[in-house]
Structure formats: structure tokens, C-alpha cells
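protien #1 (seq + structre)
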Amino acid sequence: MADIPHKKIRFLNARNYFREYCDYTGIHGFKFIGERRTLVEKVSWTIVFCMSLITCIAVVNEVFKKWQKSPIIVNFASHQTNIFDITFPAVTICPETKVLSNRFNYSFNIRKSLNETMSEAE
């Protein structure tokens, strides 16, 4: 080990960690990048992954910009659907004001009421 330069050891460790990450990650395509394959395959999978990542970032960015302009996002279906197949819409209202968490701490309130009933019974 003494004759191997420190930078070379760091590079080998980083490569081993990257290969291990690629073997165990759930991200599709990384497994093929980390395996011992031809350079063409690795470069192809890297390009596919980078293009997918760029596309995802662009879509999220566009949706975020749209949400900043109008916090309500409405999406219309482009195909015909029978009226009986449409479920009743659920409406969720998210207030801008914050609520006190201690008012909605159900387990604390239940324990408190149980303790009060126990003390009354004694």
C-alpha cells in the first residue's frame, strides 16, 4: 500500500463505493452503469439517465412556475367518459393560516379524558 499514491487509493475507493451504490440502488439504469460492461453501454445508460433527469427537472419546473402564478391547478381529461363512471369529486381546502398542533393532538386529549374519568371514578 505504501507504493500506491494516496490519490489512487481515493479513486479506487470512490469507484468501489459508486459500484456498490449502483448495485443496490432502485434507480433504473444505475445497475447497468456500475456493472462491468462495455464503455458504449455505460455511456448510453449515462446519457439516457441524464436526459431523463433533465426532462423531469424541466417538467417539475414548469408545474412549479404554473403553481406560483395560480396555486390552484386544474387538469382536464381529454377523453370522453361516461357520467356514471365519474366519482364524486373530493375537495381539499388547505388554509393559509397555521393551526395549533396541541388542539389536534388526539392521543393527548384521549389520555387526558381517560385520566379525568379515572380520577372521578376513584
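ok now protien #2
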Amino acid sequence: MALAHGATTVKMHHGHRGANHPVKNHDQKNVEITVQNHGYVVQNKSISKNISVTHSSLFDNTIAGIKIENKPFFSVQYHPEASPGPHDSRYLFKKFIESIKNCAKKK
């Protein structure tokens, strides 16, 4: 999603792999424990004004989630569906379903 909106990505020296990665949720002002498995990251300096950073890694401050302003689009760079594992990010599925319902009402 970031690439589609003009941002750039770079290969990480060591990717984020495994469980128990703390991620700061900037919208809810809390920390979520996540499961991750990726080797690329969105560059902070490449984010345009229509993209808001919603989540960031507490290990290295890399971007872990974004949303597109004035659109029902959001994404995270971790596995909210992970099971067994932490369930701190289950709310994302409810948010996704609500987004679909709201878009359907507009049609």
C-alpha cells in the first residue's frame, strides 16, 4: 500500500522475525505485542502527506502500520492473525469489517 502511494522500501540488514515484537499504536497510545516475518521496511522519509504512520516498532522505530487519509485504507506490517500468539491486534479485524460495512452503505 505504501508503494502504491509513492513511498519507498528498503531491505533491512536483519528482518523482523518471530513473536514478541513490541509495536506502538499511535492512534490508541498503547503497545501491542506482535508476530512478524518481513525483511523490508517502508522508509520514513518517503511517506507522503496523505499517509499517516499508525504503528511503529519499539525495537528500531521502523514503520509497522499506516493509513491513507480520507480513504478507508489501512495496513500493518505484522501478523494480527497469529495464533498461537499474542492477540493484541484483534481489533484490526473489527475495524476492517466496519470499513466494509461503511463502504457498502455509501453505495
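The helical segments are 91-106.
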